[in-house]
Structure formats: C-alpha cells, structure tokens
C-alpha cells in the first residue's frame, strides 16, 4: 500500500478548497494500491481553512513541543496538526503502508523543505509534522518532485 497526500490525487482538501493534482505521479502509481490522506483534515481542520506555517522550527520541533502551527491570522492549531499526524501514522500501521508520496513544502506533508513561518514564501530545511512522524517511525517518504525524478531510476 502506498500513502499519497490527498491533494496530489485531485481531492479538494487544500487550505483554499482546491487541490494539487499531479497527473504524472498518479500515472506512475496506477498499478499500486493507494490510500489518499489529508492529515490536516484528519486532525479536524476545516476546508477551506486559513493557511498555516510552523513558527520558529520544523515538524521535529513541533513533535517535541518546541514549535507551534500558527495560521496567517495568528490562530494556534498545533494540536490539530499533531492529531492529524498521529491519525496518518495509525493508517500507515493498520494498512501496512510501504512508502508515502507526500506534497512538498506543506507544514504537514512537506519533506526536505518547508516554509519558515513568516508567510513570505521563504523555505527552510526541515519536514512537516506528519512527514517527520512517519520518518521517526521508519516509514519511507518522498515528496512528489523527487518521486517524479527518481521513478525511472530507483526502486522504492
Ligand atoms: S495536509 Fe497534505 S494532503 Fe492535506 S492539503 Fe496539505 S499537503 Fe495536501
């Protein structure tokens, strides 16, 4: 089973009620059994919702209680992001997920780079909360950009 960020599958779960359909990624996964998930919806956030970024840290810091998820309006949604991450991890365990293709830059799904918490389109090194929790539990993850690049050369 392959876990995929639901917005990459064309599901309208983004903060603005739209999606990030990636037809190339979906085409390469067409022989796989996939589970589309949106950690932010699983955590109880509404769609649409205010965009959020991690303030003063990364997903790793959030999971240690050292950083928070703050909306562009200043709301603290840290608990919901953490709940969504653990719900996603539970799905991985229950369905024997072998790897996950996650949307880049998201404060939940992002792996490798995320926004810096200033809502200025500035990226920093780090992972979103869900991505970090999956990494910490030995689930292989890759963002959709790297997945497209590696699909023809590496076996996941
Ligand atoms: S939380 Fe993940 S699946 Fe949901 S909209 Fe954001 S990037 Fe997509």
Give a written overview of the molecule.
This protein has helices spanning 23-28, 39-42, 59-63, 78-94, 129-136, 144-150; strands at 2-5, 34-37, 52-55, 68-71, 99-102, 113-115, 123-125, 140-143. The protein contains 6 helices and 8 strands, in the order E-H-E-H-E-H-E-H-E-E-E-H-E-H. The chain is of the alpha/beta class. It has a 4-stranded parallel β-sheet with strand order 2-1-5-8. Strands 3-4 form a two-stranded antiparallel ribbon. The chain starts with a strand and ends in a 6-residue tail after the last helix. It has one domain (2-150). Helices cover 30% and strands 19% of the residues. Helix 1 (23-28) links the parallel strand 1 and strand 2 (34-37). Iron/sulfur cluster is lined by residues 5-7, 13-14, 38-40, 103, 106, 108-109. This is DUF523 domain-containing protein. It holds the Pfam family 2-thiour_desulf. It comes from Clostridium fermenticellae.
């Amino acid at each position: 089973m392959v876990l995929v960020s639901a917005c990459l599958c064309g599901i309208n779960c983004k903060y603005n009620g739209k999606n990030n359909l990636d037809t190339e990624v979906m085409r390469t996964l067409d022989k796989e059994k996939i589970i589309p998930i949106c950690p932010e919806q699983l955590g109880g956030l509404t769609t649409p919702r205010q965009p959020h970024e991690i303030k003063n840290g990364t997903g790793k810091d959030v999971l240690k209680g050292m950083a928070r998820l703050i909306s562009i309006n200043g709301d603290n949604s840290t608990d919901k992001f953490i709940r969504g991450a653990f719900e996603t991890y539970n799905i991985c365990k229950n369905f024997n997920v072998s790897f996950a293709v996650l949307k880049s830059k998201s404060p939940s799904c992002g792996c490798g780079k995320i926004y810096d918490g200033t809502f200025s389109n500035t990226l920093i090194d780090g992972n979103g909360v869900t991505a970090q929790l999956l990494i910490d539990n030995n689930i292989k993850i890759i963002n959709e950009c790297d997945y497209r690049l590696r699909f023809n050369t590496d076996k996941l």
